[in-house]
Design a protein that fits this description.
376 residues; alpha+beta; Rossmann fold; nine-stranded mixed β-sheet; three-stranded antiparallel β-sheet; binds zinc ion
C-alpha cells in the first residue's frame, strides 16, 4: 500500500464536507429537528418522579433493542418488566460494566443492522470505536444542541462560525475558511491557525457579521492566542459554544476575556450515552431522558436511551465529574447537575510557519484500508 499522505486524508474528508447533498440533508435535518426542539423546554421542569418514569420507559426500549444482539446474550431480558420494579439504577446494577475495549473489534455484536448513520469515535484516547446511530437519535441530538444554544440567545438560521475540525476545501494561509450559504455557516479551518493566517480568520468573521462561534476548545484557544500575540483586535461575538474536549478553567478565562463574551460548554461523547449542558449559573445539567448516568470511582457508567441502533448499557467513560447536586439549580432547572468535568485534553502540534494543529484524528477519517494508525 502506498504511504498515506496528509493530502490524501484531507481530500477524502473534503469530498464529504463539500458535498451539496450533505448541505441539503443538513438543512432538512434542521427543519425536522424543530418540532422536537419545541418539546424540550418543559423537560427541565419535570419532577424527580416524572424523570424516573421517563428513564424507566427509555430503559425498557433500550433493553428491547438490545435483546437480540450477540453482545448482550448474557443479559436476562426480563430484568426490565412490570415485575422488576421501576428503579432503573437497581435494574442496572444487575448488569456488568461495559468497557470500550469489550466492543472495539466486535462492534457488530452491539449494533442492529437497520438503516442508520455510521460514525466513529475520534480515537484520540485509543482505537476508534465504530458507531451506528439511528436517524431519530441524530435529530434528538441536534435539537438539544440547538436548544442549548438558545439559552444564549442563538436562533436556528443565525449565521454561525464553526471551528470543529471540518477540513475546509482549498484552504490556504490567506483564506482558511469557507462560507456555506445553505448552512448559514462560516467554516473555519482548525488546521491553519498561524501568525500569517490569523488576520484572514478575523476578517472572515467581520465580513460575514458572525456573532456566534462553535468550536473545539483547542481550536478557539489557538486562534485567540495567535491573534493576541500579534496584537490584533478581535471582532465582537455574542457567545462561543464549545464541546468535545475538556475546557480548562484558565483556557475558558483567556478566551472569554479576549472575545468579551461568555462560553457555553456542552459535555457529551460520540457514543451519545451522556450529555450535559452548561447553564447561566455555569452548572452542567444532565439532559433529561438522554441517558442514565451512574458515578463510579473510575469514571461514569452511562446507558443511552435515544439510539435504537447501538444500545450501550453501563458503558464506562473515564471522565471525572465533580460537584453533583440534585436540588433545583439557581437557573430554575430541575434534574441532576454538576460543577466540573475533566477528561479529554488535547495537545497542539506546532507546524511549519507556526501553524497550530490540534485534534489530529481527522487524518484517518474516510480513508479505506487502514487497520491501525499512530501519529507521532
Ligand atoms: Zn443551572
Amino acid at each position: 500500500m502506498p504511504a498515506l499522505t496528509w493530502a490524501d486524508a484531507r481530500s477524502a474528508r473534503e469530498v464529504t464536507v463539500s458535498s451539496s447533498v450533505r448541505a441539503a440533508a443538513e438543512a432538512g435535518r434542521r427543519t425536522l429537528a424543530a418540532p422536537i426542539r419545541r418539546n424540550l423546554q418543559r423537560l427541565w421542569s419535570c419532577s424527580d418522579d416524572e424523570l424516573r418514569a421517563r428513564e424507566f420507559i427509555g430503559l425498557r426500549k433500550t433493553f428491547r433493542n438490545a435483546r437480540d444482539l450477540e453482545g448482550y446474550r448474557a443479559i436476562r431480558p426480563d430484568l426490565v418488566s412490570a415485575e422488576s420494579g421501576r428503579d432503573v439504577r437497581l435494574i442496572l446494577e444487575c448488569l456488568p460494566r461495559l468497557e470500550k475495549s469489550d466492543i472495539v473489534g466486535r462492534e457488530r455484536a452491539y449494533q442492529r443492522r437497520l438503516p442508520g448513520l455510521d460514525a466513529t469515535t475520534s480515537g484520540t484516547t485509543g482505537t476508534p470505536l465504530a458507531l451506528r446511530r439511528s436517524v431519530g437519535s441524530v435529530l434528538v441530538e441536534e435539537a438539544w444542541i440547538s436548544h442549548h444554544r438558545g439559552w444564549a440567545g442563538h436562533r436556528p438560521g443565525d449565521v454561525t462560525a464553526v471551528m470543529r475540525g471540518e477540513v475546509v476545501a482549498d484552504a490556504t494561509d490567506a483564506a482558511a475558511y469557507r462560507y456555506v450559504p445553505a448552512r448559514r455557516t462560516l467554516l473555519l479551518s482548525s488546521y491553519h491557525v498561524s501568525e500569517r493566517a490569523v488576520a484572514g480568520y478575523l476578517d472572515a468573521l467581520r465580513t460575514h457579521r458572525v456573532k456566534w462561534l462553535a468550536a473545539y476548545p483547542s481550536s478557539i484557544a489557538s486562534l485567540t492566542a495567535v491573534a493576541l500575540a500579534r496584537g490584533l483586535a478581535l471582532p465582537p461575538l455574542t457567545a462561543i459554544f464549545t464541546s468535545s474536549e475538556t475546557l480548562a478553567p484558565q483556557t475558558r478565562e483567556a478566551i472569554e476575556s479576549a472575545w468579551g463574551c461568555r462560553i457555553w460548554d456542552h459535555y457529551g461523547h460520540a457514543e451519545r450515552t451522556v450529555a450535559a449542558m452548561e447553564c447561566e449559573e455555569r452548572r452542567y445539567h444532565l439532559v433529561p431522558g438522554y441517558g442514565i448516568v451512574e458515578q463510579v470511582d473510575d469514571g461514569l457508567l452511562t446507558t443511552n436511551l435515544t439510539n435504537s441502533l447501538m444500545p450501550l448499557l453501563r458503558y464506562r467513560v473515564t471522565d471525572t465529574v465533580e460537584g453533583w447536586d440534585t436540588g433545583r439549580c439557581a437557573c430554575g432547572r430541575a434534574g441532576r447537575h454538576f460543577a466540573t468535568v475533566a477528561g479529554r485534553m488535547e495537545d497542539v502540534v506546532i507546524g511549519e510557519g507556526g501553524r497550530r494543529i490540534g485534534r489530529l484524528d481527522f487524518v484517518f477519517k474516510g480513508v479505506e484500508g487502514v487497520l491501525a494508525g499512530q501519529i507521532c
